[in-house]
Design brief:
6 helices, elongated, 88 residues, mainly alpha
Length: 88
């Protein structure tokens, strides 16, 4: 198997970044939150950004259309326990 590493610090591959993107991660910060990639030396952040590109992010598409990007969170907040709703 040929693995192309994006993040040498944490052993994260291009395939893993693409899988996280397909699951909804739209930014290098979101990739970092699920894989730690980009959180040590930071040299992979530009590569992660290039893999993510400009398309395919539902939140980005909402923003481009002028709609609020956090519509889904609004629904989740209404079903969250009161302690979590008040913390926000």
């Amino acid at each position: 198997m040929n693995r192309v590493y994006v993040c040498s610090c944490f052993g994260i591959t291009e395939t893993q970044v693409k899988e996280h993107a397909a699951a909804g991660a739209c930014t290098p910060r979101q990739i970092a939150s699920v894989s730690k990639a980009g959180t040590d030396c930071g040299s992979c952040v530009r590569r992660i950004q290039s893999l993510l590109g400009r398309g395919g992010c539902p939140r980005r598409e909402l923003l481009d259309q002028g709609a609020p990007a956090l519509v889904e969170l609004d629904a989740a907040e209404s079903t969250a326990p009161p302690a979590l709703r008040n913390a926000a």
